[in-house]
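Input chain follows. Return structure tokens only.
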Amino acid sequence: MQSELERIAMLVREEVQALPRDFDRGRELYIGADGTPTESIDKIAEDVILREVNGRDLPLNVLSEEAGYVDRGYPDTLVVDPIDGTHNSVHGIPFFSVSLAVGRRSLDDIQHAILLDLVNGDLYRAQRGHGATMNGTTLRVRSLPTQEPAMLFYLGRFAHPRAFELVKRSSRVRAMGCASLEMALVAQGRFDAYYFNTEVYEKGIRVIDIAASALILREAGGDIVDLKGRRLDMPFDLSARSNFLAYGDPRVKELML
């Protein structure tokens, strides 16, 4: 299954890289299954994934941002974010990914994960119980170097005021606009945590956004919890939303929550 997911991710990258410079990546086509506008770049990436799943008759259902749940009659489901960081892609910011994960019912039973940086080609892989890698190198989170962690934050329009309070308690802060790759930076040990807290439930994170990166982080020795400190689990349901903290060293959890 890992090789199939990797192959699909690479095809998405090829398709995206082949787009002409004047292609309108941000053109809104329709409202997707998750209730948000589907932009042309999302549709192109999703079409590649669905074509490969159907064409190769992979034994998977599909849950995707635009198409919603596609029941193909199998026990396992491919959880897809065709383009995570769509706005980065539209505005020419080189930080966006395709995220693919396979599980049965929820975040907690994800078995396989592939995350591909669609700009530089960094490939993250994880299999439950077998660790996580980036470009073939084993990933491990880092120990907290100080009592002022280096943090990634969601600081968008709907960010909770608490996020801005915590910014002042961090040694370095970045807001990158792509949850999956931000969590991958924590798994690499480049940052200590990623904090996502929004005031509006409908703007919370969806399982498709973090299905792959959650397994990658957990297999690298970190974890992801809700803002009450409980291990985060989310059903395969596009209507479910959550705030969360993804961290490496457990001491970060104590500091930030």
